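G.,

No rush on this.
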Amino acid sequence: MTSFPASHGFGPRKRGYQMDLTNVQPVENKPAWISMKSPLEKEIANEYEALKVTERKEDTQDYNEPELHNSNDPTVDLYADTYATQAATESDSELEDALFSQLDEFDDTAYREQRLEMLKKEFARVEAAKEKGHMQFLTVENEREVMDFTLSSKKVVIHFYHPDFIRCKIIDSHLEKIAKVHWETKFIRIEAANAPFLVVKLGLKVLPAVLCYVNSQLVDKIIGFADLGNKDDFETSLLEFRLLKSSAIDRLKEESSSNKSIYHDELQNNQSDDSDFFE
């Protein structure tokens, strides 16, 4: 057997022969045999990932929000929505009195009492949701916040945007409207440049990108405007209906303001067929 000088490090047992050159290469350029893991290594890696998920869930316990279930009662849901959208302009006591007085019209005492109890619980859920940042379109600055919200909130809609892309601004204007009336869902946005890990992990190459999570699971991706008619002046209700199909919101709600984007007028004569590519 040929012997190699120890100082040269060329022997088959020497690290320099097999590892040094490949270690400096990007992972995707390494030979397949270097990327292969033994069953034990795979088991250790899986346990490590599970531990990280557990630790993250423990870290976000303080962020956990109350269950915001749909009451499945149209009357109660309507009053709760009214309470959520008007409480900012009317005193809570005046609004509650107005809503409760409408229930007094029912002759069935048992029915009225049942609905009053449901209303009180629904109002409490609305207040809890608002305290947790619902009914706002929040801008977050880092990926950790995005992951925390995704783990701690039952329903989350995330917009990955670029500040200079006009279509991202259009999506922002629609999501801001939707967020104000859908108190059951958290709406957030993050600049794509501030989320490099998530952009790569989620394979985002075109902006705007809207991702919907329910119970920490990705349920829908809306990339560009291809699924929104591929035009800039689509109505808010179109995006709202898409979110409903994904279960990212509970139900459609009436809007008092115009359904058109705030950019509708200036974009009527500036239609574009392409979304913006993010690199």
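When you get to it, here's the other one too:
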Amino acid sequence: MLTPQQTAVVRWAWTAVIFAALLGLSALLMAKKINFSNADIGRHLVNGRIFIESHTIPQTNLYSYTYPDFPTINHHWGSGVIFYLIGHVAGFTGLSAFFAAMSILTFALFFLAAWRESSFPLAVVSAAIALPLLSSRTEIRPEAFSYLLTGLFLLLLLEHRRGTMSLKMLLLILIPAELLWVNLHIYFFLGPFLIFIFLLEEILDSRKKRSIFNFQLSIVNSRPLLLTFALTSGATILNPAGIRGALEPLTIFREYGYRLAENQTVWFIDGYMDYPLNLYFKIVCLALVGSWMIAIIRAWQIRKVPSIAFALLSVTFSVLAWLAIRNFTLFGLVAIPIIAANLAMADWKRLVPTTFPLEVIVTPLLAAVMLWGLFTLRPNYWRGQWTVTGLGLRPGALSSLEFFRREGLRGPLFNNYDIGGYLTYGLYPQEKVFVDARPEAYPTSFFTDVLVPMQENEETWKKIDAQYRFNTIFFQRQDLTEWGQRFMIARVFDPAWAPVYVDGDTLILIRRDGPNQETIKKHELPQSMFRVRNG
């Protein structure tokens, strides 16, 4: 028999092993080689380079020749600076490693919040349910900072609610964090929002609202959180655009003329394509709803009110995820501590073993079985994910840019939406793009009257081509839009254009009567290389 001290050592050692295994699995899910031609990271790196070299932040559509003077608010400029400095020192491999490390830290913050609100076994089970959903956003993006800071705010606010975090410490951490956040990503409003949720819970606590006097007293008692909310809200104006930057989350969709898959609802994506992560999102939703049923029943039995803050957070982040699949990861992370806290309200001692050593045996086995079951629901999806697990760029990621520069190709360029950041990284300032992945940086009419129609309709294409006299078409081949596919097929078989480069991600065509005749002679690809597949 082990002594109590030995039992404690073994328990903590086994806890550390399980925790490390979860962190390792989260790293495998998040560490993906960069699909550079389809990513925004190229533009973020150029943003950072411009700031470091000239100490300026672009306030207009600097990288495009179509609307170079269109005003924009660069709400993620700070992320670009961080990405550029890391990439400059450690390259793309270092940038991938930084993103993976930040993702692991983010997961650890939410897991720690779950552990503090429940128990280690329940935190493990809750994390296992949500882990597959976290792989929905593995591209290196500024939003990763929002995930991290959401976890930090939530953990500290829970500690403050528990009485283990002083007001002074809360202010010392959250105000600088919010000041940083507002210059890193547009989801900075989540900081004050989280504080407001906990402030509202404190005011509406059932023990404090039995009379008007006590309700007023509860507001007085909530002054620490009220002060924190006011100061963090005030910090949001400390960005290059001032009050306009602070209000950008409310106005960004006014000029947003391009329909992005990541901004679509779950039911729209269900009707459009088979997206495996929709299934995992619904599973986490069911787990969250189930945990609330347990919490409400148990609360009724013991005459205790469940967490108002967790209820409001559940509704808010569920709605965000249902309305835009880009919010799946954020929803999954927030769900971890909520599910764990709700499950903790049940009397588990009657149902499962909670004593050593059964606890440390059952916990990892249950988590492993759950994860195995979740991953086997969509094995082909996870096999595909495994093939791109790693650090740095995918093989040949820069080959098309190298070909463009080596052959001395020239603009004006016509490119599709997704590849704009890639071209900005490789060609700016010598060449500017036709469009990039910033709908807010162009008038809505540009997308509705120009970009989409010119890919759908030959007459519109000829009209716009005559206006700009394109010399090169640089296209991202994985464009799944109907107009993008139709346009690529039309241009490959268009006698006015010669395909000269193709790989798994990109396609380059140059005008036959343009300045690059020698490139056509050396590199023109036969039309027999290209096949049109139905469906």
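The CA atoms of residues 20 and 26 lie 10 Å apart. The domain at 399-529 is CATH 3.40.50 (Rossmann fold).

Enjoy the weekend,
O.
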